[in-house]
Design a protein that fits this description.
alpha+beta; four-stranded antiparallel beta sheet; 9 helices; about 30% helix; about 25% strand
């Protein structure tokens, strides 16, 4: 966790994954028989960041350049006739900026999927257009997936990652949606990259849902989704309870637990918690496999320029060893090195005087995190949590 920045939830840690989006680009989709060509031109945006900021602020036409008249993605459908491409129809799509992907049937039916920057959200997760560009049906996930199934799917900051490679049936009459089967593994990056799938079929001409491609597989997927949804609900309940409760130091030696303890303590205690984010360093016990690496990271954190301002937080399952190591490291730190920094160190009352003396010449603002003393949650964060639950 050294050297990385972890975005902290304002309330409690969210069970979401990070993601990123490149600017949308014009894309051409062809039918399997190569006689239909569907070109999608995205609505212009100033930048992905500008789009995201406008969305957060609730602005209409998020990220759109001021003088650009286009307000939606634009499509052109062409048909190959006697060796020449002729326009069958052209017009706006329902997508605000751009669909993420599309399919074209051998008869010129177009299907678009999702929205750029927000996969899985909106009433246009799946949209079917007939050969004249008329909308046959627009669907949200809730139109064909149960609520618990949607909740159980892997979520990122912007999206619900619900889909695999959709297809059109060999006879050109059915749309086959390839849907992720939720599992506990899909809550991490590896699980999202290698999910299992189940398929649902729809009539392309009417948009009507047909029977699942494999009825047994669909029943199994739904049962699995219910289990995953229940697991996630229980996990969230534990997170909410821990958020409300006084913060206790970890009883384990696990570095990830100590990093989380330090970050949570920061958001409960630090006066600049809304404007900055701490660096955290955890020194494991000397017999740990990665002790030498973590020791090097701690030395670097206390000697480089990165933490000369801001907040640095340090902890170890072995306070005796931590003080011994700090004695050596801080001896080589120049006077006044941390005059603009705040340094939290997790030590009990028996060790805090020694740590304060070690830091004295650096002019750091030293803050003791006493592992024996629970840290209460701030009222403002509890109020924010309560407001979120009531929405």
């Amino acid at each position: 966790m050294h050297g990385g920045i972890v975005v902290a939830a304002l309330i409690w840690p969210a069970m979401t994954l990070a993601d990123s989006w490149s600017p949308p680009a014009p894309t051409v989709y062809e039918s399997s028989n190569k006689t239909w060509r569907f070109t999608v031109t995205p609505r212009a945006i100033k930048s992905p960041l500008a789009y995201f900021q406008d969305k957060v602020s609730g602005h209409a036409d998020a990220g759109k350049p001021l003088l650009d008249p286009q307000r939606h993605a634009w499509a052109v459908m062409q048909h190959l006739e006697h060796g020449e491409w002729r326009i069958a129809w052209t017009g706006p799509l329902v997508n605000e900026v751009s669909p993420v992907s599309a399919l074209v049937s051998p008869s010129g039916v177009a299907v678009t999927f999702d929205n750029w920057h927000s996969v899985g959200y909106g009433d246009d997760a799946v949209v079917i257009y007939d050969g004249h560009g008329k909308r046959v049906r627009a669907m949200s996930l809730k139109d064909f997936l149960p609520p618990e199934y949607i909740r159980a799917l892997p979520h990122s900051v912007s999206s619900i990652w619900w889909a695999g490679e959709h297809r059109i049936s060999a006879d050109g009459n059915r749309l086959i949606l390839r849907i992720v089967v939720p599992s506990s593994d899909t809550m991490d990056t590896a699980g999202r990259d290698k999910p299992k799938y189940v398929e649902l079929a729809f009539n392309l001409a009417t948009g009507r849902e047909l029977a699942p491609v494999d009825v047994n597989a669909w029943a199994t997927a739904q049962a699995t989704a219910k289990q995953v949804d229940q697991q996630q609900r229980e996990q969230k309940a534990k997170q909410e309870a821990a958020f409300r409760a006084p913060l206790l130091a970890p009883r384990s030696d696990a570095e990830v637990d100590w990093h989380q303890y330090l970050r949570d303590a920061f958001f409960r205690l630090d006066p600049d918690r809304q404007d900055t984010f701490p660096g955290t360093e955890v020194l494991p016990r000397p017999d740990s496999k990665n002790y030498s690496l973590m020791l090097r990271y701690l030395k670097e954190a206390l000697h480089d320029d990165l933490h000369r301002t801001g907040v640095l937080m340090i902890a170890s399952p072995s306070q005796d060893n931590l003080v011994r190591v700090l004695t050596t490291i801080l001896h080589g730190v120049p006077d006044g090195w941390f005059k603009d920094a705040r340094i939290y160190i997790a030590v009990d009352d028996a060790h805090t005087t020694a740590v304060a003396k070690l830091l004295a010449h650096t002019d750091a603002q030293y803050v003791q995190l006493n592992p024996d003393q629970p840290i209460p949650q701030r009222k403002a964060r509890l109020d924010l949590q309560q407001a979120s639950e009531s929405q």
